[in-house]
Amino acid sequence: MERTISKSAFKTKDQVKDKYSKASPKPSAKENTRPQEFKLHTEQRAVKRAMFNYSMATKLYLMEFQKKQVERLQKMIDEEEVRLLRKEMVPKAQLMPFFDRPFFPQRSSRPLTIPREPSFRSVNSKCWSCILENELCYFQNAHCSHAWSPIK
């Protein structure tokens, strides 16, 4: 018996591929993807920092300018004051007194000063009632045990 080789017994590579390819369809070829443009946060921060530096430089410039104006104005005021003082300080001759009319001084309207005795004693801190009352307490007090005695 002669063996007959059937075509179904041996399968070609194409037939094997077709068998597996039917199970999962082949994906279609995609175009090459292009990267999207992106913006780094550092660029944004650099822009903000540049704006901040500009505003600070402007502020400092304005402060210095204002300070210079104030100094200039103060210098002008000082120079004007010095000029007026020099003008006032020019020595001028005094008028001659009138010797034909004698000088009579006027009596003052203030009352005369009443003299007081000097107080050379020290205040005793033990008796507050004597301190609060008038000064005659030291000479008239019978209620205080620390009355002053004469020095011997």
- Helix content range: 40-55%
Uncertain residue segments: 134-139
Order of helices and strands: HHHH
User: How many distinct beta strands?
Assistant: 0
Rg from Cα: 59 Å
Helix segment tally = 4
Strand content: under 5%
- Structural class based on helices, strands and sheet pairing: mainly alpha
Mean pLDDT equals 77
Largest beta-sheet details: none
Q: N- to C-terminal separation?
A: 174 Å
What is the 3D shape? Answer: elongated
Question: How would you explain this protein's 3D organization?
Answer:
By secondary structure, the chain is mainly alpha-helical. The protein has four helices and no strands. Residues 134-139 have low confidence and may be disordered.
Task: Give the arrangement of secondary structure elements.
Blueprint: H1 13-23, H2 41-88, H3 128-132, H4 137-140
